[in-house]
Specification:
mainly alpha
């Protein structure tokens, strides 16, 4: 839902309102900031600039792409009244480069997603600039 929600606090308040007692909400969001443990994604590289384009575009159109960086999910859920809020951060490789087999498989699927869906993200950016 990243890039489509105007008010994350309102979203979680409404989710809390419609949950039955004992119900729960699960939400997964991804960071548009690419990084690498070995520091090879430099700030001035195309992948290093990627997040800045989305962050600025979101700011201009009132739709944040800093959901993960600003902790909006946890904050919004707690303020809405949810308890036992759990946050789990996962690294997701892009490509088949990891040595560990499970991460390699994840990277292959991740790369396929980027190759298939990046065009939609770029179209969204171009559409919003009009």
């Amino acid at each position: 839902m990243i890039g489509s929600i105007i008010n994350w606090d309102a979203l979680y308040k409404e989710a809390f309102r419609v949950c039955k007692p004992g119900g729960y909400v699960e939400n997964h969001e991804w960071s548009v900031k690419f990084g690498c443990d070995d520091g090879t994604v430099l700030d001035d590289s195309p992948m290093g600039q990627w997040s800045k384009v989305f962050w600025e575009g979101g700011r201009k159109f009132g739709r944040t792409f800093r959901v993960v960086e600003d902790g909006l999910q946890e904050k919004g859920m707690r303020e809405a009244g949810f308890v036992d809020v759990m946050v789990r951060d996962f690294k997701c490789p892009v490509g088949s480069w990891p040595k560990e087999e499970k991460m390699k498989e994840l990277g292959v699927f991740s790369m396929g997603t980027w190759e298939a869906d990046a065009e939609g993200l770029f179209c969204w950016i171009l559409f919003c600039k009009k």
